[in-house]
Design brief:
CATH architecture of chain A: Orthogonal Bundle
CATH class of chain A: Mainly Alpha
Number of domains of chain A: 1
Helix content of chain B: 10-25%
Number of strands of chain A: 2
Keywords (chain B): ATP-binding, Nucleotide-binding, Transport
Number of helices of chain B: 8
Number of helices of chain A: 13
Shape of chain A: globular
Radius of gyration of chain B: 24 Å
Structural class of chain A: mainly alpha
Largest interface: A-B, 17 and 26 residues
Distance between the termini of chain B: 44 Å
CATH superfamily of the largest domain in chain B: P-loop containing nucleotide triphosphate hydrolases
Organism (chain B): Thermohalobaculum xanthum
Number of strands of chain B: 20
GO molecular function, one term (chain B): ATP hydrolysis activity
CATH superfamily of chain A: MetI-like
Order of helices and strands of chain B: EEEHEEEHHHEHEHEEHHEEEEEEEEEE
Low-confidence stretches of chain A: none
CATH class of the largest domain in chain B: Alpha Beta
Structural class of chain B: alpha+beta
Largest sheet of chain A: 2 strands, antiparallel
Low-confidence stretches of chain B: none
Oligomer: heterodimer
CATH topology of the largest domain in chain B: Rossmann fold
CATH architecture of the largest domain in chain B: 3-Layer(aba) Sandwich
Protein name (chain B): ABC transporter ATP-binding protein
Radius of gyration of chain A: 24 Å
Strand order of the largest sheet of chain A: 1-2
Family (chain B): Belongs to the ABC transporter superfamily.
Shape of chain B: elongated
Order of helices and strands of chain A: HEEHHHHHHHHHHHH
């Protein structure tokens, strides 16, 4: 075998395990779901094999699903905006701190070591009727009856921010780290104040990281079902809850498949849009 | 009036003192170089003038005004960095216009001044390009244009040529000096490269370990080093143990190892007392290697030596010589053929090329 042929083969040998895993565990099941979405669940509970458009007609035509999809996107958007506003200063602080960066980054990662569900449920102990905030306010005599703070849209957003903020901070941090600090010195020497330097130099150069963090937050927020399940009220279901409902509760796999493909299509379109304008490289940087 | 005055500047980082009580005057319009190895405090000094660092003690004045408490964006300085520091998301024209924008220069006047600056650095056609599309040398010209277009009181250059290739570096050296001369801006230049310092400066400030070793015009610093450090740092020097043995007419007589009695002119031994331990300093270029037995003329002292190694450099050669216990270096132009390793030769030293320093107290 020639050297060229050997060199050309090498990447494929190294990629084989990962590619097979993605193929077998992601694309094949996805194909199953696509096929399922055209089956039909009969009144007896058995699945009717065939090519039926009923599920798609229901998923796309029913205003109920459309409204919840729009609401899901709204919640994801609000969460993303809050994550950006809260995450950017934190990321800036870590990127510009001297010496103790490793500790700060470790602290940022710490929440990942605790189960996401436990972290979400911790809010019940804080905001619940007999939670920390109510107990403290009652002990101080500010209120006599506990306030109902949980189980609304605001707490869902709160839980999502709690979950997603580290992703935003990490992405912005990585892009800030990549900015040469002498650029800021240069801008100041040319007469720009610290704030003007930030607006003209630092912020524009960190936008790719902000966009990558935003995409991650948005996609993860839009696809979540645990946070609304734990922290939301009966009317705060997000789209993934409908999929959960259809598949786990009603055992209507064909409808659940159609719904989940619908969400996948919307979020996929968003990712494609992002890739078209900003490229995936930045996202990879943030994850690495 | 001095353009920049440093008075008793001290800079400490925790327990480490980077600059020890330094004073310096930079005359209006002059080109002053801070020269020294890395860690000598030269960049720290420049950053204090720029306002990027605050001095622990001492005063910094620019054009007679104390600027210690003046933030960097109000100091009106042009700063050029080793890594160019051009804004990657702005075009060349926007990079150069950056400082003008914050000085409230009207748009059309700014455009004209940007064009003039590009003309000055001989890159009139790159205005709409992005820094990434330019070579290193071109980027450094743009960085220079950006710094001078604001008509700064002082131009601060922090190793601006170090990132360039050797050939380009020499071209840029000439170019930089030409531009500085043309606009007459007071310039503080930081480098570790002695040839840059010698070629470009009106005055050189040689620094070592946070202290000024010597200040003077390039010729003076090169020819009469004030310390062993300066002698070793600027070019290759031979430093030979000697003993001063009293005055002798217009010079001081030294008894130097290997060469015997050498009478060094008084002007070249300003720090030397009439007797006691001393050091004889002779530049490698001034030590000439001749065929064995050649008579020494022109007041030179000739002694036999053997060539231990030859470093061939094209038009010149560097010889490593053995002279009894002494090991010496000589850099000579090559006349037809260089000498070979092992050749027995005659080494000639002219006393008027030597400098004498006090010897380390034994």
């Amino acid at each position: 075998m020639t050297v060229e042929a050997r060199e050309a083969r090498q990447p494929w040998i190294l990629l084989t395990p990962a590619v097979s895993a993605v193929l077998l565990l992601l694309f094949v099941p996805l194909a199953f779901i696509a096929v399922y979405s055209f089956w039909l669940r009969t009144a007896t509970g058995a699945d009717q094999v065939g090519f039926y458009l009923d599920n798609w007609r229901e998923a796309l035509g029913d205003a109920f699903y459309r409204d919840i999809l729009l609401n899901t996107l709204k919640i994801a958007a609000i969460t993303t905006v809050f994550c950006a506003l809260m995450g950017y200063p934190a990321a800036y602080f870590i990127a510009r701190s001297r010496g103790n960066k490793a500790i700060l980054l470790l602290l940022l990662m710490l929440p990942f070591w605790i189960s996401y569900i436990i972290r979400t449920m911790s809010w019940i102990n804080i905001l619940g009727v007999s939670g920390a905030v109510n107990s403290a306010l009652m002990a101080l005599g500010v209120i006599t009856e506990p306030i109902q703070m949980l189980y609304n849209e605001a707490t869902v957003i709160l839980g999502l921010i709690h979950f997603l903020l580290p992703f935003m901070v990490l992405n912005v941090y990585v892009s800030l780290e990549g900015i040469d600090e002498t650029l800021e010195d240069a801008a100041c020497s040319l007469g720009a104040t610290r704030w003007q330097t930030f607006l003209e130099v630092t912020l524009p150069l960190s936008l790719p990281g902000l966009a990558a963090g935003g995409l991650l937050c948005f996609v993860l927020a839009a696809g979540t079902y645990i946070t609304p399940l734990v922290l939301g009220g009966p009317t705060d279901a997000m789209f993934a809850n409908l999929v959960f409902e259809a598949i786990i509760t009603q055992l209507n796999w064909p409808l659940g498949s159609a719904l989940s493909l619908m969400l996948l299509a919307v979020l996929g379109a968003l990712v494609l849009l992002y890739n078209r304008y900003l490229g995936m490289a930045q996202l990879m940087k943030g994850l690495g | 009036m001095s353009a920049v005055t440093l008075t008793d500047i001290v800079k400490r980082f925790g327990s480490f003192t980077a600059v020890h009580r330094m004073s310096l005057e930079i005359p209006e319009g002059s080109f002053v170089t801070l020269l020294g190895p890395s860690g000598c405090g030269k960049t720290t000094t420049l950053r204090m003038v720029a306002g990027l660092l605050d001095p622990t003690e001492g005063d910094i004045s620019i054009k007679g005004r104390r600027v210690n408490d003046l933030p960097i964006h109000k100091r009106n300085l042009g700063l050029v960095f080793q890594n160019y520091a051009l804004f990657p998301h702005k075009t060349v024209a926007d990079n150069i216009a950056f400082g003008l924008k914050y000085r409230g220069v009207p748009r059309d006047e700014a455009a004209k001044r940007v064009a003039d600056a590009l003309e000055l650095v001989q890159l009139p056609h790159v205005a709409e390009r992005y820094p990434k599309q330019l070579s290193g040398g071109q980027q450094q010209r743009i960085a220079l244009a950006r710094a001078i277009v604001i008509e700064p009181d002082v131009l601060l250059l922090d190793e601006p040529l170090s990132a360039l290739d050797a050939n380009l570096r020499e071209d840029m050296r000439v170019e930089l000096k030409r531009i500085q001369h043309r606009i007459g801006v007071t310039t503080l230049f930081v480098t570790h490269d002695q040839s840059e310092a010698l070629a470009m400066s009106d005055r050189i400030v040689v620094m070592s370990a946070g202290r000024v070793e010597q200040t003077g015009p390039p010729e003076e610093v090169y020819n009469t080093p004030a310390s062993e450090f300066v002698a070793r740092f600027l070019g290759a020097s031979n430093i030979i143990d000697a003993r001063a043995g009293g005055g002798s007419g217009d010079g001081i007589a030294l008894d130097a190892d290997g060469f015997g009695r050498v009478v060094v002119p008084l002007a070249r031994a300003p720090q030397l007392s009439a007797s006691g331990p001393a050091r004889l300093v002779i530049r490698a270029e001034k030590l000439s290697v001749r065929a064995a037995g050649t008579t020494a003329g022109d007041g030179a002292i000739g002694v036999p030596a053997r060539i231990e190694a030859v470093d061939y450099q094209g038009q010149a050669a560097r010889y490593f010589l053995r002279l009894g216990d002494l090991q010496l270096q000589a850099i000579n132009m090559i006349d037809e053929h260089p000498f070979n390793e092992g050749d027995e030769v005659s080494v000639h030293l002219r006393p008027r090329d030597c400098t004498a320093l006090p010897g380390a107290p034994a």
